[in-house]
Each structure stands twice: as C-alpha cells, then as structure tokens.
Design brief:
single chain; 5-stranded antiparallel sheet
C-alpha cells in the first residue's frame, strides 16, 4: 500500500529484536514476556523439521502464532485509526483489528527468517503506570551496529503485550497512523479497508 516504506525499513530491525537474546542481569514481568516470545521464535527457526521448502507455510503459520502472543493488535489498531476508531461499528472494528494484525505480521515475516545470530541486550525496564511499562533493548548486528529498540507494554491480566515499538526514535504505530490518516483524508475509510483486504489476500 502507499506509504509503507518507513514500516518496511523498520521491519528488519524489529525482526532482529525478536530473535537472539543475551541474558539480562534482571528481568521483570514485561521483560520476561518478551524473552518468552524470543525463545519460541528461535525454537521455530531452528526446528529442522520446518526447514524444507515445502514446510514454508507451516513454519510461517507457527511464527505468526508466536508473534501474535506479543502484540496487542486491538490496542495498536485503535491507536492507528485514532479518532476514526470511534465511528466504526463493532463488526468494522473486529475486521480492522484482523487486517491490521495481519499487515504487521506480513510486514516483516519474510525478513524474520533471515536473522538467527543477532544479539539483544535488555538494558532497562520502567513502569510508567500501574498497567503500563517500557522495556528498552539494544540490538547488536553482526556488523557491530547498536540499535535501540523500546517496547511499550500493556498489562492484560497476568500477561503483558506490546502496543507500540520504537526503533531509533521511530514509533511503529505512529508511522501507520500517519499513513492511514493520509489515505482517509484523500479518499475514505472504506478505501483504506479495501487496500488492507487486498494486501491480506496477497498472502
């Protein structure tokens, strides 16, 4: 869709943040939640039974399921639509959350399989509210470049889920919100959804 260059550029870095974790000297609940997802993703990528070309769809299905446990797609979709969320019916909201979640997964699912040896350090965890926290990490690439990545986390019962990710100062959801608002202003919400449906159907 139009205006996805920023999100595509962010995607490989976000993928790297999911793939190789260095042990932290401490770890609170939000950090442990992220580390749990990292372990599941690494396990899938290293599963020899899923490496054959004919296992590609099965492997990606498992990766999507693992990634989905980390993100609060409804909160992200609500933020991305901003004021337009309030005008949507329950059915429209449900569909938009599904489309938005698939778009985020699709943005970097093809990249995620390229990263196996990146190193991530957990450098800070901070409670910003009773049910919100941030987890700061630093990804070190094979070339030695250090990339700061912050997860904004929301407590849901006993679990924590990310509702935004900031990479080198660029907020993922904010980037999508800017793109969506531009499309709605130029055309309509219906055209935005039509575009997202087409992207979903591409596979």
């Amino acid at each position: 869709m139009t205006g996805t260059r920023t999100s595509l550029r962010i995607a490989p870095l976000l993928a790297a943040a999911l793939l190789a974790a260095a042990p932290a000297a401490w770890a609170g609940e939000p950090t442990n939640q992220i580390k749990g997802v990292v372990d599941r993703v690494i396990s899938i990528l290293r599963d020899a039974s899923l490496l054959a070309p004919e296992k590609k769809d099965e492997r990606r299905t498992k990766l999507r399921a693992a990634i989905a446990t980390e993100f609060d797609f409804e909160e992200m979709a609500k933020s991305a639509l901003a004021a337009h969320w309030h005008n949507r019916t329950p059915a429209e909201r449900k569909e938009f959350v599904e489309l938005f979640g698939r778009m985020i997964e699709r943005t970097y699912i093809g990249k995620i399989e390229l990263y196996t040896n990146e190193i991530i350090r957990y450098v800070k965890e901070e409670m910003t509210e009773a049910d919100r926290a941030t987890v700061d990490t630093i990804v070190t690439t094979k070339a030695g470049q250090e990339i700061p990545i912050r997860y904004s986390m929301l407590r849901q019962g006993k679990a924590w889920k990310a509702y935004d990710v900031t990479i080198e100062g660029n907020r993922l959801v904010r980037n999508y919100r800017d793109q969506f608002q531009s499309i709605i202003r130029r055309s309509s919400y219906e055209d935005l959804v039509k575009t997202l449906r087409a992207k979903r159907d591409e596979g």
